[in-house]
Design a protein that fits this description.
11 helices; Serine Threonine Protein Phosphatase 5, Tetratricopeptide repeat; about 190 residues; about 0% strand; mainly alpha; 2 domains
């Protein structure tokens, strides 16, 4: 009797081992993070990281991928505006930054578009550029208080205009806010004090 029982158990085990790979093939596959990675926010975040590294072509691709997913995504237009500004294509840069401002759904996006304009005016250095930067700064800070980016880029603009006391004050405000660009502001203050 033990022989038959042992034979039955071995046959059953063999059958389970034979069938289980095919059952596993029918199981649902684990979801790849594509739904998280293929979002306008993710592409835009990647684009800004690529700008910092100087990979403008790749940054532009990421911002365009974000716009394919959401055609009115304000942060992606802001990123494109900055890329075009760095490339000295100011006509396109200001057009895209205008789209970033126009498509801003949140006050935060609108404030960041104003910061984008500040950066473009500083890059271009056209007639009355510092007044344009100051105007965009006031617009950015009136809609969102304590935006470190606004104070940082105002400090950089003042530095480039050789208005050092105002530059120090704006950069020190970034350190006081302590919500971003702290290291960059600290480095800029060290550079100014030399």
């Amino acid at each position: 009797m033990d022989f038959f029982r042992h034979k039955f158990l071995c046959s059953a085990l063999f059958l389970v081992l034979l069938i289980s790979p095919s059952l596993l093939g029918c199981a649902p596959k684990p979801a790849i993070l594509e739904n998280v990675l293929n979002t306008p926010g993710h592409h835009t975040s990647s684009g800004f990281k690529l700008i910092k590294k100087g990979y403008l072509y790749d940054a532009k691709r990421e911002f365009n991928l974000a716009l394919e997913l959401e055609p009115h995504y304000s942060p992606a237009y802001r990123g494109l505006g900055l890329v075009y500004g760095i490339e000295k294509n100011f006509k396109q840069a200001f057009k895209d930054m205008g789209s970033a401002r126009d498509y801003a759904k949140e006050r935060e996006d609108g404030a960041m578009a104003c910061v984008g304009f500040m950066r473009l005016y500083t890059m271009r250095k056209g007639k009355g550029w510092l007044e344009d930067v100051e105007g965009s700064f006031l617009e950015a800070t009136s809609s969102v208080k304590d935006r470190p980016e606004a104070y940082y880029y105002m400090g950089i603009a003042y530095e480039e205009a050789d208005r050092i006391p105002e530059s120090k004050k704006a950069l020190e405000k970034v350190l006081g806010i302590n919500k971003g660009l702290v290291l960059e502001a600290y480095e800029a203050l060290k550079r100014i004090k030399k």
